[in-house]
């Protein structure tokens, strides 16, 4: 962990020693600022039963700048686009150096459980969520089954 700030080392150790339920975050051996992340879909959501892969990268400016996070697993969600980019305020203008990796991951986990179609990154999904939520949920569950299980 040479070359990393004390803060990054401590955050990484805490993710390992005190894991967040339903979330794993493991740094890559060749770049300890780059994490392989999995988030389990919450029960009673269209993402239940899914294991979603993400990548998280801590820029050189971290913690003054937010981590870069994107979904690798293909999914249907109003706040996640086809490239896996995430519309979440703390990853943009509401970032604070007081936040940590685990806070970001918990916020993403919460976003999966409670999509916000009024602040979309995937306009098609957002419009369907507003006009026919049952159909949007059905499509999201189908994506989960096809891309996030097995």
Keywords:
globular; Ub_conjugating_enzyme; ubl conjugation pathway; 150 residues; nucleotide-binding; Ubiquitin Conjugating Enzyme; transferase; alpha+beta; 33% helix
What would you say this structure looks like, in words?
With 150 residues, this protein is an alpha+beta fold. The protein has a single domain (6-147), classed as Ubiquitin Conjugating Enzyme, CATH 3.10.110. Helix content is 33%, strand content 18%. The protein has a four-stranded antiparallel sheet. The radius of gyration is 16 Å and the shape is globular. Belongs to the ubiquitin-conjugating enzyme family. InterPro entries: Ub_conjugating_enzyme, UBC, UBQ-conjugating_AS, UBQ-conjugating_enzyme/RWD. The active site is at residue 87.
